[in-house]
């Protein structure tokens, strides 16, 4: 089972890199999201069918700049900015925000994360939906 999980991570990462065409901010965001999902996820929830569907989706995003490519591009764009919002530096004074405003910014992505979960359920995929929690 462990070898299958490692192989699934490698396949998702490889096909994801091809889908984003190795562009610099997107590949690091993809790597961080996949790492978080595989580290925090439960190995008992492993489903090879969902992995295969996600890999096929990423292959479609690689082949042409159609709907799949735009979905992947926009997901990574939002995840990039979501990580900037919630991974606040040690001093909240840097952005002149108090703890309440930082919590509100982190909560503003709840609807987006819910939509990604619904996309996963409707198509049978496993795009990472693990939330990055703010550090207060």
From TrEMBL:
Domain of life: Eukaryota
Protein name (Swiss-Prot/TrEMBL): DUF1763-domain-containing protein
């Amino acid at each position: 089972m462990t070898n299958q999980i490692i192989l699934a991570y490698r396949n998702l990462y490889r096909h994801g890199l091809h889908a984003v065409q190795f562009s610099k901010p997107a590949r690091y965001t993809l790597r961080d999201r996949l790492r978080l999902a595989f580290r925090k996820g439960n190995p008992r929830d492993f489903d090879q069918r969902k992995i295969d569907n996600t890999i096929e989706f990423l292959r479609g995003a690689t082949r042409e700049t159609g709907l799949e490519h735009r979905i992947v591009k926009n997901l990574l764009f939002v995840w990039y900015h979501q990580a900037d919002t919630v991974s606040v530096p040690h001093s909240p004074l840097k952005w002149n925000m108090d703890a309440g405003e930082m919590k509100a910014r982190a909560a503003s992505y709840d609807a987006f994360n819910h939509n990604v979960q619904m996309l996963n359920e409707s198509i049978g995929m496993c795009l990472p939906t693990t939330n990055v929690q703010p550090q207060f």
